[in-house]
Each structure stands twice: as C-alpha cells, then as structure tokens.
Amino acid sequence: MKARTPLTLLVLAGLAALVVTILVTVTIGPADLGVDEVARSIGGHLGLPVDAVPRLHDAIVWDLRLPRVLTAAAVGAGLAIAGAVMQSLTRNPLADPYLLGLSSGASLGAVAVLVVGVSLLLPVAAFAGALLALVATLALARSGSTLSPGRTVLAGLAVSQMAAAGTSFVIFWSSTGDSYREILNWLLGSLAGATWASVAIAGIAVVVVGTVLVLSATRLDAFAFGDTSAAALGIDVDRTRWTLMTVVALLTGAMVAVSGAIGFVGLILPHAVSSLTGPAHRRLLPVAALSGAVFLIWADTLARTVFDPRELPVGIVTALIGVPVFAFLLRRGKGAAWT
Amino acid sequence: MDLTLDGVGTRLGGRWVVDGIDATPPSGHLTGLLGPNGAGKTTLLRLVAGLLPPEKGAVLVQDVAVHHLPRKARARRIALLEQESTSTVPLTVREVVSLGRIPYRSLWGTDPDEAAVDRALVSARADHLAERPWSSLSGGERQRVQIARALAQEPELLLLDEPTNHLDVSAQLSLLAFVRDLGTTTVAALHDLNLAAAFCEHVLVLANGHLAAAGHPREVLTPALLRQVYGVEADILEHPRTGRPVIAFHEPTRSE
C-alpha cells in the first residue's frame, strides 16, 4: 500500500472542485448564463470593481441560483461529516443520519412547528426531533451493553418510518394547498425553497459543528477497536459519545430545517473518500465535507434540470445513486464482523 | 514499576465478581492471572487498568491509586489489550499502532514523538507488516500488532487479556517469550496452565473473585490447588529441559 496523499493537496483539490462546481452549476438551467457573468455578478455583490451584469441575469444568479447552490453545498458537507462521525461512534459502516432516523425525526419536528406557525423555531424543533429520534433508535437497538450494527439499522428503520408517517399525517391534516408536493419535499428532501437565510443556517451549522468535530478527530479515531479500547487510550467514552452524537443531531437538525430529509449522502461519501484519505478523522472529515458539498450540488442540479420545467425532489437522485452503493457495501461486508 | 493490589473489589449485577484481592506482582516481570471461566480475571484486569472504579480497596501504581489518575496520564502508563480486537474500519497496521499514541497527541492531532510508532513496530517485530491492511493479517500477526500498539503507549504496566487465544502453538510460545523478555511489568490472563507455568515469574490464581494462591508457579501449581480451584486431577512433572513445572491432567480415579 502506498503512502497517503498529503491532506493539504486533497483539501486544495476539493476547494478547487467546489469553486468550479459552484460557478458552473449556477449557469445551468433556463436563461442563457455564462461562467463570466456568474463570476461578475458575485464579484459585484461582494463590492469588487467588475462590469455590471444585466439586472435580470443578476437576479437569477444572486437571488435564485446562488443561494440554492450554496445551500446544497452546506447541506452536502454537513450530511457527509454527520455520516462519517455516526459510522465511527456506532462502529457501523451503514450508519448515517437518514438510515438511523435522525433526518425523519428532524423533519417531523420542523413540520410540527410549521403547523403551529412559529417558523422561527424551525431549526430548534428540527434539532429536537433529530435528538429524540437518535435516542429512540439507540434505545431500541441496544441489547444489554452492546450495539449491534444490524439491530441499529433495523431500529433506525422503525423510528424513521414512524417519524415519516407523523410528518405525512401532520402535513396532510393541516395543508390547504398542494400537500402531496410538500410531504414529498420533507420526506425526500428538496432545495427548491433555498434562500440566503438557508445558506446562513446551514452554513453556520456546518462551520461551527465541523470545527468541533475536526477538533475531536483524535477521540473519534480512538473508537476504531471499540469502547474498552478507547477507554484504555484515555478517552471518556460515554461523554465523548453523547456529546458528539448531540452535536451530530444539531447538525442534522440544521440541514433538515433548510432541505428536508435527504438520504444517502452521509452514507456513501465517507466510504467514497476514505480510500483516498484513510480512516484518520483529521483527514477524513474535511475531505468528506468538500466532496459532500460538490456531490449534493451536482445531484440538485440534476434534480432541477433533468425533467425541466418539473423538479424532482433531490432525495430521489441521491437515493438512485446511494442505494446501489449501499448494496455494494452490504455485499462487500458479507462475513465481516458487523454483519 | 511497583504495582500493588490493596484489597481491591467490585460488584457486577450485585455479585462481588472481584472480592478483596491483595497482591504485588513483581516489577519488570510477567505475572500470569489464572482461574476458571467466571473467576473474575477480566474484571480484575479492568480494575487494574483503571477502567472500572473499585467499590472497595484500590490498585496502586507507584503508590498512586489508578482510578484517581487523569485519563490521559493513566493511558500513558498503563496499556490494556482486550481479549478480542475487532474493527470495522479499514486500517493499515501502521494506523493501528499509531492509535497507541492517542494519549500523547495534542489537540491538533500532532504527536510530539513521531518515531514512537516505528520503534513500537520494530520492538514488537511487526515492522515488516507496517503497510499491510489490518484485516489481511493472521491471528498471530494481529496479536503482535496489538502488542505493538500497546508498546506505542510506552506503558510502565502492560495488561493482556487472554493474549494467546486463537493462536497456534508456535505463535503462543513466541508471543509469551516476547512479553516475558520485554522487561515491562506485565499481567496476563491465561487459560493454559502449562503456558503460565513455562513463562510466568509469578502467578495469581483466582477462584470466585477471591485470590486462591499467589507466588512462583512451582510453589503455587500443586495437585491440591488444581483440585480445589479447577476441580481437576493432575500430576506435576518437571520439564526435562527447563526444569519448570509441567501439568499432566488425568481423569479422576473411580474410588471418588
């Protein structure tokens, strides 16, 4: 096996890919935009001395597509690191916020406060929903003191179905307009409603929580051989697990509050990048975040353009890509310790 | 390094699984922890490692109670190898060994002594495996790498829970010879009494959470003790080459 690629190189490559992705995907869609116009529009809003862009094009870039693309980037990054951290803490390669029910729990929390009409509380309620779902999944999955991966996924499935049913019920009961579309957007995820407020919520959550998690990288590494081994390496196992799980629930809540429950990003990205970065979290987390951002931007671009003018919920696209990867992981893991 | 068990004990599920053990394993030597299944060996190792707070008594390392040491400081002095080491993470051998450096890492994940991993690999004679995936190793190689991980912690006290489990005879012998010659104070839970007799300077025999006997294998492993603790009949022979005790088990005679 060769030595690992330097982290700086991976991060720089990821950043470059992210910038190019943003500039290019903003041009994609109805209205004929060029990359130079996108760059000039962004530059103008940032106060740089650039030639002005026609007002309509500027509005399409700055008010519609850029917030959506940036939200997709933040959500993709957040889900990818949430998945990586959950996989380590539960020692389960199939763990991610969607499969373990956190995303559906967050959706239910969000929808519940929307009905009551206090949309300001939406991220808080989504966080509370994610946390409750997490506690429910772990409580269901736990038998004795061990957390078997198979039981955890089954428990996540039960919690996730329950919360999804709750979400559908609440919307169906309360919605006056196109309730089916709204239900789909929460259950499958959609970035169609993204605004600069979404960028702020998801962006701040990713930066703050991401920093906390990268600073916890060593403690996450220590879980590789399980709880006792982590404790013998000087880690406060219970405190670390509950703190970081809560932080992941917080992150998931922020993501779901702006985009609904988008699946499989957290599951597949950590596996996809770990062959490049290796399993050390100080390397894995930043690279997974950047790849998740790029991945979700492209997935959302597909979702909004393939059947233009109709939009697919982006969760359909991520599932179409993610389920085959899930199947591959299951096949590869046959006979391994966690099956 | 001086290790003292001072009346240490704890309950699990209401039962005293380790009950008032007094012992002083000799410094710089291999001590075998013996006893039938359920005698409390694993729990005692966890108490000594400071992973479980004692409900009575204490474990003292250089006269300091281990459960009062800060976690990180404790992990720099005591290394514990569990009975089963499994991982779902695709680690290389070098990455496994560098886990042992976690107690020394800074907040940013940097290790003040980057050569420590290589030294540990060399001294456990696992350096030729360094770039191999952990999952591709044989049982004996895995145990050797886990020992290297423990050595990377630079411990003064090494605790091993059934380190020879699932190993073939040659791997068992080379592992215990290696540990014996380390010169680090080591306590190893062992199932195989003949291995303990061959390699240990000192043995502690547990029965139902109590210390049944302690001392040099030649003095401790007697037919009477084996009958009392394990419920088996045996003759003790002398090894023709090493002079160490060899235990020859036999079926109980009819008259009993």
Textual characterization of the structure:
The complex is a heterodimer of chains A (339) and B (256). Chain A is 73% helix and 0% strand. Chain A is mainly α. Chain A is globular. Mean pLDDT of chain A is 89; it is low at 334-339. Helices cover 30% and strands 27% of the residues of chain B. Chain B has 9 helices and 12 strands. In chain B, the strands form 3 sheets. In chain B, strands 6-7-8-3-9-10 form a 6-stranded mixed sheet, with helices on both faces. Chain B has a 4-stranded antiparallel sheet with strand order 2-1-4-5, with helices on one face. In chain B, strands 11-12 form a two-stranded antiparallel ribbon. In chain B, β11 (233-238) and β12 form a beta hairpin. In chain B, α4 (116-123) crosses α5. The model of chain B has no long low-confidence stretch (mean pLDDT 92). Chains A and B meet through α9 and α10 of A and α2, β6 and α3 of B.
In short:
The complex is a heterodimer of chains A (339) and B (256). Chain A is built from 14 helices and no strands.
Keywords:
heterodimer, A: 339 residues, mainly alpha, 14 helices, globular, disordered C terminus, B: 256 residues, alpha/beta, six-stranded mixed beta sheet, four-stranded antiparallel beta sheet, 9 helices, 12 strands
Distance between the termini of chain A: 26 Å
Number of helices of chain A: 14
**Element-by-element helix/strand order of chain A:** HHHHHHHHHHHHHH
Say how many strands of chain B there are: 12
Q: Secondary-structure element sequence of chain B?
A: EEEHEEHEHHHEHEHEEHHEE
Tell me the total number of β-strands of chain A: 0
**Helicity of chain B, as a percent range:** 25-40%
How many strands, which pairing sense, and closed or not: the largest β-sheet of chain B?
6 strands, mixed
Strand content of chain A: under 5%
Q: Which CATH class of chain A is shown?
A: Mainly Alpha
C-alpha Rg of chain A (nearest Å): 20 Å
Poorly predicted tracts of residues of chain A: 334-339
Strand order of the largest sheet of chain B: 6-7-8-3-9-10
Strand fraction band of chain B? 25-35%
Shape of chain A: globular
- Determine the fraction of residues in helical runs of chain A and give it as a percent range: over 70%
Q: How many structural units, i.e. domains of chain A?
A: 1
Mean pLDDT value of chain A: 89
Strand pairing plus helix content of chain A: what structural class? mainly alpha
Provide the low-confidence segments of chain B as ranges.
none
CATH homology-level superfamily of chain A: ABC transporter involved in vitamin B12 uptake, BtuC
